[in-house]
Amino acid sequence: MPYSTKADGRAARVRSSIVYLLWLSLLFSCAAVQAQGIQIKSVSVAAQEQGYSLGMDAEIALNATLEQALEKGIVLYFAVKFSLVDARWYWLDDEVVRGKYRIGLRYYALTRQYHLNHPSFTQSFNTLREALQAAGRLRDYPLTVKANLKQDTDYIASLRIWLDLTRLPKPFQVEALGVSQWNLSSNKLSWRMPLPVSGQPYRMKDQ
Fold first, then answer.
1. Inter-CA distances, 63 with 3, 29, 68, Å
2. Same domain for 26 and 50?
3. How do beta strands 122-125 and 137-142 pair?
4. Residue 84 is part of which domain span?
5. Are 172 and 77 found together in one domain?
6. What is the reported pTM?
7. Within a 13 Å sphere around the CA of 77, how many CA atoms are in the beta-carbon half?
8. Full DSSP string of 119-163
9. Which of 37, 86, 173, 176 could form a disulfide with 94 if both were Cys (CB 3.0 to 4.6 A apart)?
């Protein structure tokens, strides 16, 4: 049988095309995984006349499952928790300052707008990206002081943001159990810090 260089060339091109398509599929899959999630970019704690306040910048990105849930009318609640702990070697750690709040995000199909119920404001947005950007920003949120504080002590601070599945309707809570697409959370950010003084807020960036 005569050897066909044309057939061999076509086969090589087909193999190259398949490899290229697989590479593109892997690239887009990796990009999609990286695009979803919550990342805390910066945190600030400031002294106020009546205690302390929290500021934050974070990036929140939803996966396709959560976007579809929004479009079906499901309200997504994001919980934010900050705490300041006095770590004592001789006794149990003592939480001395705390701040916790929720952000509600809803989509209205009639107006095609995203409505954000934030502790600092209530506002509608034309795009999901704008709403998520606003959800990740916090300024001058008052913190609750639970015990006497010492200016000459370093405390352990922590901050975390997560999708609060307990606020979902019961059928969706069952559906979300053990499903990674519903598990949206930042890493728990922890650091050691002194108490800020007036006019000199303590600022920290996620490394």
1. 51, 12, 9
2. no
3. unpaired
4. 37-205
5. yes
6. 0.77
7. 12
8. SS-EEEESSHHHHHHHHTEEEEEEPEE-S---TT-EEEEEEEEEE
9. 86
